Fold these 2 entries.
Entry 1:
Amino acid sequence: MSRLSSSQSIWWWLAVLWLALLLAAALLADVLPLPYAADTTDLMASAVAPLTGGHWLGTDSLGRDVLAGLLFGARTAVLVSLPAAALATLVGTALGSAAGFWGNKDLRIPVSYGIATVSVVGFCFVCRGPARAFYPTVSVVAASCYLGAALLARCGYRRQLVVPLDRAVLVLIALLASVPLLILALTLAALYPPSLSGLLAVLVLTYWPGPARLVRAEVLRVRALPYIESARALGLPTERILRRHVVPNIWHTVSTTFPISVATLIGLETTLSFLGVGLPPETASWGRILASARLAPAAWWLILWPALTILLTTLSLRQLSARNSTD
Amino acid sequence: MGRFLLYRLLRTLPATGAIVSLIFLLSRAFILDQPLAGRLADADLSTRAVSAVQRQRAEEQIRHRLGLTGPLFYFSAVQGPATGLGWRWRWNGTANQYHQWLRHLVHADFGVSFRDGQPVVALLRQSLYYTLPLTGGAVLATIGLAWLAAPHLGRQSRRRRFFLGLLYLVDALPLFVVALLLLLLLANPDLLAWFPSYGLGHEDASAPWVSRLQLLASHLALPLLALTLVSLPPLLVQLDAALGHERRADYVLTARAKGLAEIRVTRHHILRNALLPLLTLLAEQLPALVAGSVVVELIFSLPGMGRLLAEAAAARDYPVLLGGVLLIALSRLLAQVLADCLYFLVDPRIRLPA
């Protein structure tokens, strides 16, 4: 048993080491003393093999250095996948836990306040006028609407509207799930001019249902446990139950899926770059090095190095996730 | 059964319609914002030196021909006077682009390609002719391999661990990397040139059909292998878990005590019970394979639907892209309905909520 755990921890340390190297490459890509900068075309050395003419890992058919491409590609991969995974996990966790916790019946809002909110929003859409008068008018209307609602509640009108939150979130998920992830990302990325922020938005928008589903299932499990019931019986406010009792219990699931999300998003980013969609063509990416291999079919170094990088990165992230799940 | 399927369809169709409508509206809103001239391969606009007025008129003509004129949706919001805030809402009636698009869609008219003016339906039909054999073959190969592997799964053996480890490695790579590695290993004149690396070969109509079939098979072998390799790991891992769970059941002991061969116990007794959770996965695999063909067909230069979609995305040819997305979404719907039918066949105890 001890041998097993020690060999596991060796793999874990190797994974952490590789990911740290990757992060360092992403951070220091500008200042590293590279023999050739990224995106400079060395026309004397087009598609040369590794270790010739100062190109340690070879060049592609336009004479761009593979090593520099890999390092700057690491920066792109980190810049795209980490924020996208973090945001998608955040959105997914928020929506999934809300859907799981309140279900279809438990979230109720007073009808009077609902009507007040709807009418204020509607007023914003309908009203027209000079810019100076807009904000004062809207705030007066809002104040009077909410005052009226409070008065109604005071007079004893306490009807409540049941919000089917769970169903709403599931409909949203079904909407996004009706097209496979790659196709949806490809289509949405093709709608807008290629840019880093656009790609980020597309990835977050298409990827959040995955974490949301997992978190929702986990919250459904936790919510039925006796200690949540006793917390309710004690009269704790809902917000406190969620923050102090539910979220710590699903944190484990979230932290296990996060590395997997990063790995999936790196795969998606490289695939989109390979297809020439999403990122501007001058941005270095592992997918773009692989795409250049199609112009030089005999150049094994154009396939092997990026493929190895992607493989090691994915395996390391999985190792991280596996360690989290056994803790 | 029929009622249940109808109910399922009615519940899932709106989601498909909504996402496709959303993509349509987004793409059209984007087109309305920018001039078309640079992106359309219209010789009149790009080669001849024309005046600005003529250019504008030509652009209007193109927009008219492609149905890009008029309001976008049933209602539209116009920004109010420049100094003020708020919108002016206008009801457009049915004379809007979305309504026209829907009307054509009902008549199976997906519009024409922005690039070459060919009808999208014809393009899709041509490409399905190549994609269906590829994806269908990949599905069959995956299921066949899983069936072959089933007796070795779900128990401790060195071979199982080796193969699962190998699949774990393959699963860590995106599909396009797997395809490129296959290309590097098996279609490389320097290493092993077993397979042709791209295309479908010359269709020689006079050759006997056996050699033509052989040619086609040798060209489709690598794409098929790539798709199968990628779709196999999730299936086998699930199957392994399900079989391992079922092997401990009492009826397996009974079957062994009767003196049945191990292979027969697995295929006739255990596999049936382990199949249920796999059906959902299989239903997910079908659209995923179509999505995978985007990459594979591009790499191996097959004139299929995936390549059509990838090129349409790179060239922003929205009608083709939308048609492809709609087709894939429908295939997903079909796969789900199929999975429901199979559930019913595999386990008749399931009572479907009508």
Note: Chain A touches chain B through 53 residues (CB under 8 Å).
Entry 2:
Amino acid sequence: MAANDNELWWASETFWKKTTIWTTVIMLIVLVGLTLDTVSQIQVGGKRVPAYSSINHRVDYKYDEALKRQVVIIGQEEPLFGKKLTEQEAEALVDHGKLTMHAKNCMDCHTILGNGAYFAPDLTKAWLDPFWGSVGVREELMVEFIKDPTDKLHNGLGRRMPNLGVTDTEARAVVAYLKWMSTIDTNGFPNNFKPLDQEN
Amino acid sequence: MTALRALDSANLNGGQKLAVKYFTVALALLGVQIIFGLLAAVQFVMPDFLFGVVDFSIKRMVHINALIVWLLFGFMGSVYWMLEEEAGAPTVGLKLGNIIFYVFTAAVLVVVAVYLLVQVGPGEIETQWFITEGREYTEAPRWADIGIVVCVLVFFYNVAATFFKGKANNGGISGIGGVLLLDLVALAGIYLLGMWYTTNVTLDQYWWWWVIHMWVEATWEVMVGCMMAYSLMKVLGTSRKIVTTWLYLEVFMMLGSGILGIGHHYFWIGTPQYWLSIGGFFSALEPLPLVAMVVHAVYDAGVHKSRNNNHPAMGWLIAHAFGNFFGAGVWGFIHTLPQINMYTHGTQWSASHGHFAFYGAYATINIAFFYMAMQKWRGDVWMSSNLFGSWKWKWSMVLLNVGMIGMVMGMLVAGFAQSQIERAIGGATWNAFFAAQEHPWFVQGMYWRLAFGWMFAAGYVLLVWDLLTIGKRETRPVQSISYDQVALEAK
């Protein structure tokens, strides 16, 4: 439809059509550029998403004075289940854990990196949660809980996790996945988190 | 045209005959969504309800998947509804379109049956192929993903081929048609990005948000822009030139803000810090097109002194304009800046926004199309003032709207309590999470949500009853409306 001679530019169909097309194209180009940069920054083994083998180390979440937010500290060697893994072994274990979390549909009760459902707590820092009491018992408590949570202590609400038929191998893999996930730099989310005391 | 009032498919063109099939399944799936939503809401106040039988995760999965699929069926139906009039040609490949409808519907039933009967699988990749992918909103197993892509390709073939066939005798493709075609390409293409697995959870969620965000906050918004443009022409008699110009303006603002607005999902998943600024800024602009849609709808209604040929449809179009603005726009805006989102992300704020936005932006306009379809299906029957039995559509609209707003408020209040008690004070530990969940302010919110959920369900029952009976006892033909001067001009 040709624009009428007397038509105001801001009421013109053609003007808005062109504006729409150009804006969309420009925004898409910017998004693709940002995506290329982001994808390169979030590769496993980088600064934001540490290597799978970081499960061989202590993970902590500390307040950074300069940034005014908490940051992840990957500290001394502290292998999961007492067994130091190679990068490949660690990747295989974490992968099995993630597959298990998909297969049991964890995300439709819990949140993972804040995304999911809101019936059960966030799992982003599950590894660091004070719920586990102390470092010495954490790993085994987590495994036992995931395998058969129904009758274990949950909360005062009576809200419980069902038995999802997680095997021992799968439960250990899930713990590895959760430990690895706690190493991801989430820009300080969740804020003011109070992690499990791991000093003793 | 056959007898007035009789529900006769001879009243419909080919695309519209297929459209009403999609609408029927869409409406049924809305019922499924409501049932599973109620079951999940009950579990928030009675934790042992169906525990170990149909656990919360399963209820919630069916609840949100029914949502996605019924809205998608509603959109596909709406496109088939508009298609022949917009393209100026009979639907190309209609037979194939019909087959695909039955295949799609059967696939949905199989997926839901597996969700309910099998529920979970072993931690292997095969589980993702045959049981569930285990990712919120895209839980459907991979085989179903591929099926969806095939169905959408056939759908796209129907739409594109029809527009190109009508191009010659229609003087080109209409503005609505052009926007629609490009939107469908994007909608289908984006879905492909969610169809792969990676161990890297950050990368996984990065692409997963492309699917969710680019559907819900970009391509679906463009889709409802097209639907709104078409329905304002049909129901009010607004001129094509006006609705097309507005459509371009809206799409410009939607994609100008929405494409980079995706950044508000990239605050806390491990992605770089620059997304805090980019996501915060652009997503804060996302309400603007929704303001434009309100202005557009209300202004057009005013110009025509609200004289329209389908009161229920017009009512739902206005509900859409305001629902989209408040639910998607305002409710999104209130927690989209990272400084706030840090404390609200993954709390009942998100649930409150999710309910209001999906309902306000998408459920409402699909319901408007259901009413437009019923009117024509009954031979263009009267649906204006003093409509026989009009209490039903009015009351169902009141119950649905008040029910939804009540649920949204219940969750928002719970969300306020949660973000303060769990996040700001408690430091987001699991103990803090449960301290918030146990707090009377939170618990009361959950009870209110359940109560208003029942009200919403009652509204749905009335809606179904009304859609089945509206116009049945009318003897008057459709009210003629004053078309704008250029309304019927060639495109």
Note: The two ends of chain A are 76 Å apart (CA to CA).
